[in-house]
Amino acid sequence: MLDVSEEVRAEIGDEEADRLLGGDNAPGTYDCTSCRTPGNSERERTSTVLFVGEETAVLAFAHASCIPSQVVPVSEEQLQGAVRSITGGDGQQPQPDSDLPLQAELGVTSGLLLVGGEVQPSLVVEPLVPIARPGTTGPVDVFLELLSEQGFSTITALDQVPERLPGWSVLLVMGKLHAVLQPNANGGAPVAWWQAHQPMQVADEWRSAVNKSGRVLVFAAPVGTIGQQPREDLLREAMDRAAAAGKLVGAAMPLAGT
Ligand SMILES: [Zn+2]
Question: Is residue 93 domain-resident?
């Protein structure tokens, strides 16, 4: 019971697509690439998901109820991680130190926040340095201004769910957070606005809340506003302070491909 979308078919070719649909290369049982729970392509509708890196591509499977069949662009590094995860190989690849500064640019925290009377799976994004407008070196921190221009709403109080931002989405792969995607200015597949240096582990409760609500609330604040908070209640207090100070923006985003 496999779904092979037109875009996946275009990438893998008619022959391979037909082999899959004919059952020859169907996976049987698999771990859903979205929710990570087991699936069975003989018993339930299953989406083929093709992860495409710069050099290689990996075919994976997901419950059709989780995500539709699609092509997901990822970095080669993420793809290798996905391959290790799919094949059950060594996932503990040491990261070279030289990559650490890249990680330092945006801090992303996942948490369950009470917004509008309901617990909402959220991401809180805060740069670790002031963000200048691209193409300038100005020390002025224009992070919120840039996000407002992209359509994020100013949050003055966390009493309602921010509006959905068209074209933006959150990419979970193998149950881990990979990226926040934004529309591609040149058309075509979305591009990463933020990309995890290493796929980010999220709590099981967070993941099941996302699977239930089908969306993630993404909040952002300028450098030095929220900081690293060890508990969700402290995170919430810091966000309330940021909102009251006019230093918080937010948007609701679906999971990539949904
Ligand atoms: Zn699933």
Answer: no
Helices of type H across the chain: 6-12, 14-21, 76-87, 100-103, 143-150, 204-213, 232-244
Neighbours of ion ligand 1 (CB under 5 A): 32, 34-35, 63, 66
Question: 31-65: per-residue pLDDT in tens?
Answer: 888 877 889 998 999 999 888 877 667 788 888 98
Contact 136, 230 (CB under 8 A): no
Do 137 and 48 lie in a common domain? Answer: no
Burial (0-12, 13-18, 19+ Cβ within 10 Å), 159: exposed
Span from the CA of 131 to the centroid of ligand 1 (angstroms): 37
Distance, CA 190 to ligand 1 centroid (Å)?
A: 22
The reply to whether 249 and 134 lie within a common domain is yes
Q: Domain range holding 124?
A: 103-254
Decide if pLDDT at 88 tops 50.
no
92 domain-assigned: no
